[in-house]
């Protein structure tokens, strides 16, 4: 990222404001319609990255999940927030608390759960998730399965996009806050 030297900010009447610690000359914006869908990041789970910040350990993405998909049992080392836009998903551990269109879920770090979309869903489920830290997954016998975090997701997006000829995928990135242009 190149250093930016900006003029001292002013109000609309010209009154000077304090210099910000990190001046920016543009808003960091991505449009979900311009981000290619990365299919089958996990089987039947497709994502559009919105912000991947390995430095802060945060990953924000839109997920489109087909009916009948699941993830291994896992926990997050930090908090997770999920807004459900369309469809339905559940945790096996909480079958009486389905997450449906309009639901907002906040998970404290360390909560253990097994994500799935019911097989009888009549549409794909669409969510936006903001995860802090890592997702640590386990096999049914309790052995380690995998770890996903902002850095591993960033590498996976880059590798899948390159392998599939999608080209650069736009998203807001960390370490200096910039937008990766598509």
From TrEMBL:
Residue span, ChrR-like cupin domain: 30-121
Organism name: Cupriavidus yeoncheonensis
SUPFAM superfamilies: RmlC-like cupins (SSF51182)
Coiled coil: none
Protein name from the UniProt record: ChrR-like cupin domain-containing protein
InterPro entries for the chain: ChrR-like_cupin_dom (IPR025979), RmlC-like_jellyroll (IPR014710), RmlC_Cupin_sf (IPR011051)
CDD domains given in the database record: cupin_DAD (cd20302)
């Amino acid at each position: 990222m190149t250093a930016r030297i900006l003029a001292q900010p002013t109000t609309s009447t010209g009154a000077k404001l304090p210099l910000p610690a990190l001046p920016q000359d543009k808003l960091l914006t991505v449009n979900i319609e311009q981000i290619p869908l990365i299919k089958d990041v996990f089987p039947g789970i497709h994502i559009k990255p919105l912000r991947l910040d390995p430095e802060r350990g945060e990953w924000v993405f839109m997920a489109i999940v087909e009916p009948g998909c699941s993830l291994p049992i896992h926990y997050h080392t930090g908090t997770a927030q999920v807004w459900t836009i369309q469809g339905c998903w559940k945790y096996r551990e909480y079958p009486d608390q389905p997450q449906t269109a309009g639901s907002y879920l906040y998970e404290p770090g360390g909560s253990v759960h097994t994500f799935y979309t019911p097989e009888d869903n009549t549409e794909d489920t669409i969510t936006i998730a903001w995860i802090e830290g890592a997702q640590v997954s386990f096999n049914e016998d309790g052995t380690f399965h995998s770890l996903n975090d902002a850095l591993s997701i960033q590498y996976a997006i880059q590798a899948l996009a390159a392998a599939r000829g999608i080209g650069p995928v736009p998203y807001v990135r960390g370490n200096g806050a910039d937008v990766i242009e598509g």
